[in-house]
Design a protein that fits this description.
The chain has a single domain (3-141), classed as Rossmann fold (3-Layer(aba) Sandwich). It has a five-stranded parallel beta sheet, with helices on both faces. Strands 6-7 form a two-stranded antiparallel ribbon. 33% of the residues are buried. It has helices at residues 3-11, 25-37, 48-58, 74-83, 103-108, 127-139, and strands at residues 17-21, 41-45, 62-66, 92-96, 113-116, 140-141, 153-154. Helices cover 40% and strands 18% of the residues. The chain is globular and about 30 Å long.
């Protein structure tokens, strides 16, 4: 991604929180670095149980969720996130190395987008992932409700 495009991403991401759930330490650090460089506040989790705890505590603007996780699988984490009123409206971008044939099922189960890990370009430090996050966040806004909670709604 060109420097100008990265600067535009940075300007559009002030204080937006991302929860990155990835069990691979290498991919977690690489993606965390790229998202931080793009201007996001990044929290991470290495397994499904930790993901649910961090999501509940931090209420991120978007969650990047690996599907192959220890303790609780990605699909189980997605299901629990969508069942929990506090996290149900947070957009979830599924990260997986599984084939695209699972995309439709994951979207039906509540994922906002599907990102195949094989498309990550390690030489470009996952700038495509940061761009995907920006795209999803541009389609969702999280207004403060009268009770002080957050609620996401799609922007048409």
């Amino acid at each position: 991604m060109k420097n100008l495009e990265m600067r535009n991403l940075e300007m559009n991401t002030p204080n937006q929180k991302v929860l990155l759930v990835e069990d691979s330490k290498f991919l977690r650090l690489m993606n965390e670095r790229a998202l931080t460089r793009a201007g996001y506040q990044v929290n991470t989790a290495a397994d499904g149980e930790e993901a649910l705890l961090v999501a509940q505590a931090k209420l991120p603007d978007v969650i990047l969720l690996d599907m192959m996780l220890p303790k609780l699988s990605g699909p189980e984490v997605l299901r629990r996130l969508k069942e929990n009123p506090a996290t149900a409206d947070i957009p979830v971008i599924v990260l997986t190395s599984l084939s695209q044939k699972n995309e439709e099922r994951l979207l039906q189960e509540g994922a906002a987008a599907y990102f195949e890990k094989s498309t990550l370009d390690l030489d470009k430090n996952s700038d495509r992932l940061a761009a995907t996050v920006a795209t999803i966040l541009s389609r969702f806004r999280r207004p403060v409700t009268s009770a002080g909670g957050l609620r996401a709604s799609a922007i048409e």
